[in-house]
Amino acid sequence: MENQAHISEIYDLAVIGGGINGTGIAAEATSRGLSTYLCERDDLANHTSSASSKLIHGGLRYLEHGEWRLVREALSERETLMRKAPHLVRSQRFILPHRPHLRSAWLIRLGLFLYDHLGKRQRLAPSSHLRFDGQGPLQADITQGFEYSDCTVDDSRLVILNAMAAREQGAHIHPRTHCLSAHRSRGLWHLHLERTDGSRYSVRASALVNAAGPWAMEVITDRLGQDSRHSLRLVQGSHLIVPRLHEGQQAYILQHEDRRIVFAIPYQGDFTLIGTTDRDYRQDPADVHISDDEIDYLLGISNSYFKRQLQREDILHSFSGVRPLLADDQGPAANVTRDYHLQLDTDAQGHAPLLSVFGGKLTTYRMLAINTLESLRPWYTGLPESDSASTPLPGGDLSDPRALVEEMLDRYAWLPRCLATRWAWSYGSRAWRLLEGSHDLAGLGEHLGNGLYTREVEYLIEQEWAMTAEDILWRRSKLGLHSPALQANLHGYLRQRMDHRQLMPASK
């Protein structure tokens, strides 16, 4: 293709941004019959949406800030997402150790009562009071606490599944495609785009959604040449991954002297995920890294609660993300609302709407998408109501991934249980596609290490937009935590694969 722009088809909706909000909006739009185009400058879920605490939760601490609507909506969505993606969204019990000087027991009991009853809790166990005998993982001076239910999720896979759902209903999903600029003309948006190979093209759309996350203001001012009534407050959140801190499947929610809370969550079997932090961020969101102060903060709060004392040498991995929050509060970053705001603008004739997303949280992405479509309803004649609450995400058409594991092992006796388990909890019913035509392990291709076979690599490339080792090891899976050799082996396979494709004769 020549390195110049050309005009192609007209879409009902174009979306800039391939995080959870952008892909969720694309999935919602296509489910209602709208032709949809989505572009993302990097990989899907490359930034904020893969740097969360991996939770689907109501936000217990938001009750202290009086955000009743947000908590109620999040609790309701927690149940919905458990139905839509049972292979990604798992129930998780959280223990809140009680430190009387931080929050009184009656206040915590009241908060947990509201947490149990604000939403329609159908699948999760209620909260309860606990007493500790000093024999567990917590410091001996902690004698009581509370327990409640929330959910964990593979955040980046949730993004991928929404992109897949959108594509399977007709959306055009284009990662690694940069929106250079966009302008209104004759009642349409004209988007000028560039792929990583330098080739350029244009698309037109009746409406444009700016879901660029931390770059939403840059899109409005630099790419679109528009003004904005609102602005973003960028807040950095960082996490540590350390060796498993305790036995058992329970997670912990730890109160700090600054009244923030930090989670310590069992992660990927062998590890504990500790986070998050809250600090204002003013640099490039693509270049965010954990600071020394954040490391000290997270290690300090962990060591104040757990008998096992962590040192910097125990840190196996860390990651940071930038939350694009609505700038409505000048107070501490931790107190800024996690709720979302949708800003809608049109041209002088009321055509070519632009909707920009400010804020939001992983748990409520579907409701954000629904409200986006409702805001755009005047421009779409006969737009049907949403049915996404009852529609499984790809692979989610099953009742229990544990039963799927047993079925896979029954039909493929040669399949290692650890591999069947990982596939069931990652791909759900789509795991069967990884086994088609295989009669033994050799049928899965070359083993690159830690249960990653080239059959799975090819599936991720062909079905999930993966291109690099980082895409596969850190966003499509979390296998990068387990083996440094695996990354080298995968790099070698992908390089060999690319060389082979370049040597193949061009098709006539």
Short description:
This protein is α+β, with helices and mostly antiparallel strands. The protein contains 13 helices and 20 strands. α1 crosses α7 and α8 packs across α9.
Shape: globular
Strand % is: 25-35%
Mean pLDDT: 94
Based on DSSP secondary structure assignment, what is the total number of beta strands?
Answer: 20
Helical stretch tally: 13
Which structural class should the secondary elements be placed in?
alpha+beta
CATH overall fold name of the largest domain: FAD/NAD(P)-binding domain
Termini, distance in Å? 16 Å
* Low-pLDDT ranges: 1-7
- Helix share bin: 25-40%
Tally of individual domains: 3
Protein name: Glycerol-3-phosphate dehydrogenase
Family: Belongs to the FAD-dependent glycerol-3-phosphate dehydrogenase family.
Domain Alpha-glycerophosphate oxidase C-terminal: 389-482
Organism: Stutzerimonas kirkiae
Describe this structure in words.
The protein is α+β, with helices and mostly antiparallel strands and 508 residues long. The protein has 3 domains: 7-48 and 157-229 and 338-390, 3-Layer(bba) Sandwich (FAD/NAD(P)-binding domain), CATH 3.50.50; 88-152 and 233-335, 2-Layer Sandwich (D-Amino Acid Oxidase, Chain A, domain 2), CATH 3.30.9.10; 401-500, Alpha-glycerophosphate oxidase, cap domain (Helicase, Ruva Protein, domain 3, Orthogonal Bundle). Helix content is 31%, strand content 25%. The chain contains 13 helices and 20 strands. It has helices at residues 20-31, 68-84, 105-117, 155-168, 216-223, 292-305, 365-376, 401-411, 417-427, 431-435, 454-463, 469-476, 484-503, and strands spanning 7-16, 36-40, 55-56, 90-97, 128-131, 144-152, 172-175, 177-185, 188-195, 200-210, 232-243, 251-255, 261-267, 271-275, 279-280, 317-326, 340-345, 354-359, 447-449, 452-453. Strands 3, 4, 5, 6, 11, 12, 13, 14, 15 and 16 form a 10-stranded mixed β-sheet that branches. Strands 1, 2, 7, 8, 9, 10, 17 and 18 form an 8-stranded mixed β-sheet that branches. A two-stranded antiparallel ribbon has the order 19-20. Strand 12 and strand 13 (261-267) form a beta hairpin. Helix 8 (401-411) packs across helix 9 (417-427). It is globular, with a radius of gyration of 23 Å. The two termini are 16 Å apart. Residues 1-7 have low confidence and may be disordered. Residues 389-482 form the Alpha-glycerophosphate oxidase C-terminal domain. Keywords: FAD, Flavoprotein, Oxidoreductase. One of its GO terms (molecular function) is glycerol-3-phosphate dehydrogenase (quinone) activity. Its cofactor is FAD.
